Amino acid sequence: MSDSESATHKALPEKLLVGYTTNSCQDLNDMSKVTRAVQEGVNVLIWAFIKLVPDENGTKVRVDGGPNLIHFELYKQQLVELGHMDVIHLVSFGGWNGPHLPSGYDGKDLFYAFHNWNTPNGCKLFDGIDWDLEGEDNLQGKNNLFTLECLEQVEKVSQLAKKYGYTVSMAPAESYLDIPNSKFSRYVNLTYPDDNWHHEFSYHGASVYAYILAKWGDCIDFISVQFYESFSHAAYDIKKLGVAPHEFLIAYIQRLFDSLEGEEGYFVNFEQDETCKLKNQFVSVPLNKLVFGFANGWTNCEDEKAIFFPTNDIKIAYNKLKVLGRAPRGFMFWVIEEEGNGGLYYTPGLSDILKIRTSDS
How many CB atoms lie within 10 A of CB 339? Predict the structure, then answer.
């Protein structure tokens, strides 16, 4: 494959409706929920998850997990035949309890392991990658700390991915890009000491993904913030303080404009971790990259743990923000396989708000 072929880039849609799927494409007769989501408006599919693991000799790495590539290629063609050639397909690294990148390997080697896996016939199967590296249940587990090596590997893989024409996205849990706070830590087994609830929950972060944006933000095409993180600020404000869901979303955007930098973002005290060797600084979070991340039918509307945003509240917030010229790039939800749970289909409402595939934008 020539450099020009490998660098071919499939442009993102102007507005993004991102749906994660855990479908492994093992059975092409079991794709109905994914197909329905695309037909109803999802224009970015993120396939979860793959991981990079050392080979038998430990000298190289290989890709493990993810969809059946032969079936995935056939399914992509099925979507094209249905008229959905605009769909962007990304594949995600990480997930809760998922591994971080393997230690001891250069980011360049990790990228080429992915790239070679993704181009078995010389053409790209997936249009890009998504970073969803998170923590793990074991509070003392190694994945509750993002090592500097791992963050530098993310940088190198992302840089090469962009060079080769891939889309690169990230999906930080709300606390991993903690816009209301300036605290910084690479640990993700923390509590929220300032929120007067659920101090027994010790799996929050403190803007670890801001490190990536501060150093290599140009490599990231869009950022899906998981408001459904367990016991998030969103859940606290809405469930504990009684803030209306649409008011929370509007206030979230407003915080991005509260700085004196003249652009969207927030200030992060990186010097709280001397080993990261970053100065305290403003971190840009551009609206044209920001995607609101929601939970669909798997959440319990009465539960405090993972907040549910009704589509009517999302619509009110989006329309008000649009009038102000401050609307986000789009919406994301986890997960397509839960569409229809409890009779709730999230995709049509989100698509209607964004006017996906219509002339009314």
Answer: 23
Q: What DSSP element (H or E) covers 323? A: helix 311-323
Helix (H) or strand (E) holding 293: strand 290-295
3-state secondary structure 96-165: CCCCCCCCCCCHHHHHHHHHHHHCCCCCCCCCEEEEEECCCCCCCCHHHECCHHHHHHHHHHHHHHHHCC
Our measurement of the distance from residue 18's CA atom to the centroid of its chain's CA atoms, rounded to an integer in Å, reads 9
Q: How many CA atoms lie within 13 A of 183 on its CB side?
A: 17
| Per-residue CA distances from 242 to 239, 245, 323 (Å) | 6, 9, 25
Residue 196 to residues 127, 152, 199: CA-CA distances in angstroms? 43, 35, 8
93 and 46 in contact (C-beta within 8 Å)? no
17 burial type by CB count under 10 A (0-12 exposed, 13-18 middle, 19+ buried): buried
> Mind listing the pLDDT tens digit for each residue in 82-125?
999 999 999 999 999 999 999 999 999 999 999 999 999 999 99
What torsion do the CA atoms of 147, 153, 156, 157 make, to the nearest 10 degrees? Answer: -130
Burial 245-269, CB ≥16 within 10 A → b, else e? bbbbbbebbeebeeeeeeebbbbbb
- Whether the pLDDT of residue 154 is over 90: the answer is yes
Q: Which of 327, 317, 258 shows the shortest CA–CA distance to 289? A: 327
User: How many of the other CB atoms lie within 10 Å of CB of 20?
Assistant: 27
DSSP of 52-93, one letter per residue?
EEE-TTSSSEEEEESS-HHHHHHHHHHHHHTT-TT-EEEEEE
Tokens representing 285 are 């979070």
Question: In whole angstroms, what is the distance from residue 118 CA to residue 112 CA?
Answer: 9
